[in-house]
Amino acid sequence: MQRRLAAIVHADLAGFTRMMEGAETRTFRHLKSAQTEVWRPAIDSGRGRLVGTAGDAMLAEFGSAVSAVAAAIDIQERMARFNDALSEEQRMLFRIGVHLGEVIIDDEDQNIFGDGVNLAARIQTLAEPGGIAVSRAVRDLVELRVEYVFHDGGEHQLKNVSRAVQVFHVRQARLVSPGTTTRMVPQITLRFEGPDSAGRKHTFEVSMEKLVGQSQGMCIGRAADQCQLVVPHPTVSRRHAKLSLAGEALQVEDLGSTNGTAVNGAVLKAGAPVALQAGSKLRLGDVELVVHHT
Q1: What's the mean pLDDT in 132-161?
Q2: Fewer Cβ within 10 Å of end Cβ, the chain: N or C?
Q3: What is the mean pLDDT of residues 288-292?
Q4: Which residues contact residue 13 at a Cβ distance below 8 angstroms, ignoring those fewer than 6 apart?
């Protein structure tokens, strides 16, 4: 049994189940094209190795964190061009997670295993659709190209990981505010409440003050270890949607959920924020919540 230090890249397609239900053959064809036209050339250029694919997931390893992050950026840039040829509902938005850790190599098929691989997969779930998330170990070793920056995503308690993991998002510098300004925060609490189809009531609250302090927004989902706002229902994805502020305006964004997000009956596209107001109806899977200000 061999062990080595590797930079691990794990990726997953946001909203894959929903895309397969809507157009199975077309989605499969686009996924195979993305693997051939985007993933393999980008990994080869970074002198990495595509370890394997399983459905919509892909796993690769690199000899250095610098090469792994450069390849992840290359992949997302290539995917943006790949998606330009597709209609909006067909576009493929991958989440990518990158971690540096020790791996175990299977001599028979050269597959890799271990905590490093598991952590890369967990970090991937925290990335935005079409985005990249990395561990602190990676951030501390990598200097990004001038047009990109690391944005602190905070510490997270990940499933089956005993310690908190600090995550950083790789973002285009022009999309990140160069600084913060002090402003008066209205003393408002947002209350979301409503039933599922069986009539069971679901409720959560968040203050505007707390939301203002979360530059990345706040995640809504079924997984208490990954989301600040929890809706424990089987039709709600582990990381389903995100609440954030654009200036003073409240908005919600679908995170590639399996059963979808809707506002006042209009289904959201993954990664496209939509405004929320008092009285708006927010549907997460089979749960419909009304927004109240208190």
Answers
A1: 87
A2: N
A3: 93
A4: 19, 31, 56, 57, 92, 93, 94, 95, 256
Q: How many residues does the chain have?
A: 294
Q: Which amino acid is at 169?
A: H
Q: How far apart are CA 205 and CA 87, in angstroms?
A: 36
At residue 235, φ and ψ (nearest 5 deg) are -85, -5
Q: Tokens 């080595």 correspond to what residue? A: 4
Phi, psi of 37 (to 5 degrees): -90, -25
Residue 164 CA to residue 175 CA, distance in Å, equals 27
> How many other CB atoms are found less than 10 A from the CB of residue 42?
23
Nearest to 123 by CA among 135, 114, 115: 135
CA distance 96 to 100: 14
Pairing state of beta strands 189-195 and 249-254? unpaired
Helix axes 65-84, 24-34, angle to 10 degrees: 130
pLDDT cut 90: percent of the chain above it: 52
Model pLDDT for residues 49-90, shown as the tens digit of each residue: 999 888 788 999 999 999 999 999 999 999 999 999 888 888
pLDDT of residue 53: 84
> Which residue type is seen at 136?
R
What one-character-per-residue DSSP string does 74-135 give? HHHHHHHHHHHTS-GGG---EEEEEEEEEEEE-TTT--EESHHHHHHHHHHTTSPTT-EEEE
Contact yes or no for 90/41 (Cβ under 8 A)? no
Greatest CA separation for the chain: 61
Q: How far apart are the first and last CA of the chain?
A: 60
List of residues 6+ apart from 71 with CB closer than 8 A:
9, 42, 43, 45, 46, 48, 60, 62
